[in-house]
Design goal:
The complex is a heterodimer of chains A (309) and B (280).
Chain A: H1 2-15, E1 19-23, H2 32-37, E2 42-44, H3 49-61, E3 65-71, H4 72-78, H5 80-90, E4 95-99, H6 117-122, E5 128-130, H7 135-145, E6 152-156, E7 177-180, E8 185-189, H8 194-206, E9 211-215, E10 218-220, H9 224-231, E11 236-244, H10 249-259, E12 265-271, H11 282-288, H12 293-304
Parallel strand pairs in A: 1-2, 1-3, 3-4, 4-6, 5-6, 8-9, 8-11, 11-12
Antiparallel strand pairs in A: 5-10, 7-9
Helix pairs in contact in A: 1-7, 3-5, 8-12
Chain B: H1 10-13, H2 19-33, H3 38-43, H4 45-55, E1 68-71, H5 77-87, H6 92-96, H7 126-140, E2 146-151, H8 158-169, E3 175-181, E4 184-185, E5 188-189, H9 190-193, H10 199-205, E6 209-214, H11 218-231, E7 236-241, H12 264-276
Parallel strand pairs in B: 1-2, 2-3, 3-7, 6-7
Antiparallel strand pairs in B: 4-5
């Protein structure tokens, strides 16, 4: 989704002089096209995320719409207090872009694995939290949210080379998007891991289990009404997120179930208890956390009391 | 925009916005509310008076071309409320409601109050926001400037030096920082806790123009602002050597006046001392 980000920002910046792009010295082979096109609106501030968010806050207070770019861990956490006391407290249109949520920086290790960014972003009042599932959805999410008066945290996957079938780039803030219909279980997902959730649904179909798959890219504002309506039609819901199981999508769905009195069993798939020990690539780590399509298929079968094939 | 000339007498310099009147409001309102942070507010009274009296161009609180002022050491808020009150942005009712329920004037300033450009209270944040403001003015070719008042202990924060580096590198000549160098921090003397000096050399090393002045000498402060703004080739910092609690003898240089409220006797003495030293 990095290519989608740069191309969409260039597209918007052509007609809107308010857009500014800042990076804390990351984005090699990603951000250069923007820098070349708009050198006066591009700042590499150095390895200094706290300053970057502060600068963006000052720019936004004077009418600019700054996008600040870093790896998701650094973007969301190093300057968390500056985000809270800056764009959140003053309701300013700063866009915090975190690249590579979950295990996408595989061999980079735990310092590069954003496993709590969505949870900590979700608690800040007025901070929109968006995690698109593929590049086309990312493009539309960036376009749809550019002009929001308040701040946003945007978690983007690294890859641009896949598309979620039937999503067709659809995005609407505060809504979820259905990409597959089935009556046995509803699988809810967001971000890059949605590709695994969709593959799991396909594998389940091969075993005669029909899953609905909903993409919940707008974590905040939460698609509460969509979720309540959807969940009330099922007895089993499975959330899939490349994130600790607490505080993110699974927690949101639990809140909706509880607050709406919906009787539906919830299975939260995500990273449990602690960060994984040992090194590995993205696929290895996802599988170890039970988030590969194969592991998700087994989890759904077990929850339904069916024998995995 | 022109810099207001420095007249001969203070009374001519800042109609209504004098260090004495700011100090008096600090003492009166902190007594009324029975809260502390008095020493920090008194420390910056002269700096705030000079800023609002003759440096800042603020035609109205929402003028997009106004100079911005960020009190990054938010715990000196009462000095800022006093200046904003004397300037006519903060009403008497609002300042009398200092630290009251449902009031707009708390221990640290919040932007819901007319004239407050940015909510502060967490040290090490304001300078970055001020640099963003300065950058915005430069990018748009607009004349407004950005002023940020930080404490000396705030220079303990690593985030502040990120901005010092950035502003120096980008030569943000429309950004002026003032360090309230009173030598005190929450638990003692800065020289004992984390020695900052030579502080001017540190800023200078990052490409800033530096003035080191007596932070209670309004003429020296005015001249330093004027010189830094006239030069405009780099960000400027005034290391203002101050005394915490300045103007009230029993508070001067005493760490406890970061915290304590005034007793009735202390209040009476403080007012007597201020009146005795008031500039005509």
């Amino acid at each position: 989704m990095r290519k989608a980000l740069t191309e969409t920002l260039i597209e918007i910046a052509q007609s809107d002089p308010r857009l500014v792009l800042m990076t804390a010295d990351l984005g090699f082979m990603v951000l250069e096209p923007f820098q070349e096109r708009f050198p006066d609106r591009f700042f590499n501030v150095g390895v200094a995320e706290a300053n970057m968010v502060g600068l963006a806050t000052g720019l936004a207070s004077c009418g600019y719409i700054p996008y600040v770019y870093s790896i998701a861990t650094f973007a969301s956490m190093r300057a968390y207090e500056q985000i809270r006391n800056g764009p959140v407290l003053h309701n300013l249109p700063v866009r915090i872009v975190g690249i590579g949520g979950g295990f996408e920086y595989g061999h980079g290790g735990i310092t590069h694995h954003a496993l709590e960014d969505l949870a900590i972003a979700r608690v800040q009042p007025g901070l929109s939290v968006v995690a698109p599932a593929d590049s086309n959805q990312a493009r539309n999410a960036i376009r749809a949210t550019f002009d929001l008066p308040g701040p946003m945290y945007l978690r983007l996957g690294k890859r641009d080379d896949y598309a979620i079938p039937n999503l067709d780039g659809r995005f609407e803030l505060g809504r979820c998007e259905l990409v597959r219909d089935g009556g046995d279980v509803v699988i809810l997902s967001l971000g890059s891991i949605t590709a695994q959730a969709v593959d799991a649904a396909e594998q389940l179909a091969g075993q005669g289990i029909n899953a609905t798959v909903a993409v919940v890219s707008s974590l905040r504002p939460a698609p509460t009404e969509d979720l309540a309506e959807l969940l009330s039609r099922f007895t089993l819901a499975v959330t899939v997120e490349e994130h600790y199981v607490d505080g993110g999508l699974g927690s949101l769905v639990a809140e909706v179930l509880s607050e709406h009195g919906i009787r539906c069993t919830l299975v939260r798939c995500g990273v449990k208890n602690r960060a994984p020990i040992g090194w590995g690539g993205e696929d290895y780590l996802r599988d170890a956390a039970g988030l590969s399509a194969g592991q998700l298929t087994k989890t759904v079968c077990t929850a339904l009391g069916a024998s995995p094939a | 925009m022109t810099f207001v000339a420095v007249p001969e007498k203070l009374a001519d310099l800042w109609p209504g916005i004098t260090p004495y009147r700011i100090r008096r409001i600090i003492i009166e309102e902190s007594k009324r509310a029975h809260v502390g942070h008095i020493g920090s507010a008194l420390s910056v009274a002269d700096i705030v008076a000079v800023l609002y009296g003759c440096v800042l161009h603020v035609a109205s609180a929402d003028d997009p071309l106004r100079d911005r002022f960020i009190l990054s050491k938010g715990h000196s808020a009462l000095a800022l409320y006093a200046a904003l009150h004397l300037k006519g942005f903060v009403t008497e009712d609002e300042i009398h409601a200092y630290c009251s329920d449902r009031g707009l004037c708390g221990v640290h300033p919040e932007h819901h109050l007319c004239g407050i450009d940015f909510s502060t209270g967490s040290l090490g944040h304001g300078l970055a926001v001020g640099a963003g403001v300065a950058l915005a003015a430069r990018m748009r070719g607009e004349p407004f400037r950005s002023f940020v008042l930080v404490s000396d202990a705030e220079c303990n924060e690593g985030s502040l030096w990120e901005t010092v580096m950035f502003a120096g590198h980008h030569r943000l000549g429309n950004l002026i920082a003032i360090v309230d160098d009173n030598g005190q921090q929450a638990l003692g003397k800065t020289k004992d806790i984390l020695d900052l000096h030579p502080l001017g050399d540190k800023w200078r090393a990052f490409g800033w123009n530096v003035h080191e002045v007596d932070g209670h000498d309004v003429t020296a402060l005015s001249a330093a602002f004027r010189d830094l703004l006239d030069r405009g080739d780099a960000p400027g910092v005034i290391i203002a050597r101050t005394i915490a609690g300045k103007g009230v003898s029993f508070m001067e240089g005493k760490v406890e006046w970061h915290y304590l409220p005034l007793s009735d006797d202390q209040y009476a003495q403080a007012l007597r001392e201020l009146e005795a030293s008031a500039t005509p």
